[in-house]
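Deliverable D4.2, example record:
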Amino acid sequence: MGLGLMHDAYRTSPSFLGGTDRIETHLNKSYDVLAKPGSDGLWAAALPGKGLGLAVKVDSGNENAASLVALTLLEHMNILSIDSDPEIKRLLEWDLTTCNGKPAGTIDVTWTDDLLHTV
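Output generated by the structure prediction step:
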């Protein structure tokens, strides 16, 4: 009952959990996913329809990197397609800048099979 109630709440009012204009809000609204980032590069999701979940921890604590890794995992699990979802693509458009506002680089995920650890 608890997970079902939480799933219904996430789907009904996803912006109450993460705010508006957020990747997890879009996922909770548009996919069978219960997604929630945490602090310091932690990101978790439950996939109720598949009976699975995932957790991501980025050592640097970068929230954007954690989101991109989680989205890449969801894509490899055939839950979504980043390139086919214009809202996800829009939400991934962030600039990495120095403290002086100059471009500093990009975040990219290179998929390797050792990214997955199953329990």
